[in-house]
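Entry type: protein chain
Record version: 2
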Amino acid sequence: MKKSPATFFALLALATLAIPAAQAQFTITESPDGLPLAGATLDNLSSQSDPLVTLNGASYVTGSVTGQYAAPEFSSSLQPATFGQTQLSSYPGQMLNQYISVFGNTTATLNFNSPQSYLGLLWGSVDQYNSLTFYNGSSVIGTITGTDIGTVAGNSNYGDWGFNEYANITSSTAFTKVVVASSQNSFEFADIAYRGFSSSAPGAPAPPMTACMAFAAVLILQALRSRRLAII
């Protein structure tokens, strides 16, 4: 049966959309000095109209409130200097500047204008119920939890938790959005760092649509071949 061009391209679109998003492999490293990776864009979240951030029940806060949120702590004097922050002199390391607190069952979303490969953040009082879910467009490519950070930092027992960590997270798959969530109070974070893939770097991934385009090309070639055989 001969298919019309409209039918063919509709089938092609459905086949392309059926390709699942690649799942990311994450590399997590802790930074004793609280520093992001080189070449990253830095954002200390000083503006409550930051275009990078969308809040859904989460809030910009300062200081600490028992049972609700606790100000993140710097691990060295290098971090506040890098991000333009200040710390409380009577409690060495505790942040005086504003940060974001994600309360129980609320979220904060980081929206990037271009695909990224790396996210760094000061993760305050790391808890098992904190999570970061990475998206490429509307597709989830992976999730990092407080447990993952605790494992890397050597805090595997709940009694050891409540520590602060500058987490450097590198993804094998490009991401365009990160949803910060927590099932209980709270996920405190500050001092964001991010960077994209370098097209010249060895092993840099192909653009997200490359696999879809390649599959589409195969379908087009098959259709053309079938049409030629039908004519013969």
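Comment: DSSP finds four helices and ten strands in the chain.
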